[in-house]
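Before we proceed, please read the two lines closing this message. Tell me what the token row says about the fold.
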Amino acid sequence: MFIFDFFKNFIQRLGLFQKSGRILFLGLANAGKTTLLGRMKDGRFKQYDPTLGSNVEEIQIQNMKLKAFDLGGHEAVIKAWKSYYHNINGIFFLVDSTNKEKFQDSKEELQKILTCEQLKNVPIVFLGNKIDLKDAVSEEELRKSHDLPDKQRLEKIDYEIVNNHPIKIIMCSLSRNVGYIEGFTWISQFVK
């Protein structure tokens, strides 16, 4: 196994081997989904108007070529999320950590994803965004509000399993360029 991993890593460094996959950016309106897509595409921070439908971009991250689907987070578009679930390799679920009034709605949408049979075993990066703002809640409060395991339950791995989903919880700030890259690094282990 060591020899195989060595050669695989060597080939990846030469750029001869590339993973490819399909990921979804989900969450309520104004959570930062389109901003995340923009950050990953060209590295710049920009605020966008709310997405009315979907945005699709090819993004390159290290040895991964990802087709990223940024889906709007208002009620009419949320109902159409299911039509994008086929052949998905990962989900980034974003939450505005300053908007406590929307936590219940966000929790309900997350629970629908976690219990969807079509998405069974799909890894999820849960991003608590906007931690740079003064009204941002702590990671612990965000975990509690979304019924996610507390940090004390973590064992030797750096993520949890919730309803058959590997899930990584990361607090981030897209405006300060903090935290979200860890999510792409983590999810890359699940993309073949």
Summary: The longest helix spans residues 2-13. The mean pLDDT is 85. Helices lie at 2-13, 33-42, 75-78, 103-114, 139-145, 180-187. The first strand starts at residue 19 and ends at 27.
